[in-house]
Structures
1.
Amino acid sequence: MTEVETSPLPGSTVELELSAAWFVVLELERECPNMMTLGEIAEKILKNLSEAESKALHLLRNGHVADFGKEEKENLAQATGWGERTIRAGFIRGLCTDPSKVNELKPHGLRIRGAKIEGQLKLDELEISIDISLRECFIHS
């Protein structure tokens, strides 16, 4: 198969939009030289895993629910004492944004039960291509 390289016509709307986008990227790099990409952020977060996060990642990669529940129905009022089941919100965001991790979690998705999630989850701003289920979890931000 032969690849054909195409480029926008000079002066076209596409070329102007690409130029404007490239300018924004260059401006951001100049203003924030230490800025990390989403992939770099995800990689950094996923390198320093807690014991609970390592357990969750192992279970999720194998298509299982990362179940930290101790009882049939969790008592969320006691969640402040769930230290051994604490997962950082950044860990979950990292799994949702790192393409290699997303592929590992398909088709079952990200399923966690009975965990304490520490930090601001903020998933609404992300494009997520896997199913997410957080059942009986305490989200502490």
2.
Amino acid sequence: MGDQVFRLHGPTSFCGEVLSRVGLDVLVFDGERFYADNLSLERLPDIKSEVIFLWTDVTGLKSSEVEQKLSEIEDNPLWRKLPAVRAGRAFRVGEHWYGGDLEAYSLILDDVERYLT
């Protein structure tokens, strides 16, 4: 998420597929199904989701740097205006959301159950 750019994972990404299979709608931009796309802070208002799962790629970062990056996002006025954030439905999750194996699948399901039930 360097330079305040988000990587938005769409319905054809691993985590998007998992969410779709449990009956959740995954964000589609401009009517397009996509794997992933970069999203700048200026495009945050385009996110109309009822729920947001937020994680960061921690490769090469210390935990304090990860915390700082996530806090910068969460402190941004554009982030705080998102419907999901205002409703208390934006959740930090682990990097397993970027995984692609059965363990990651299971951990994503655990997160969905923890936060949405």
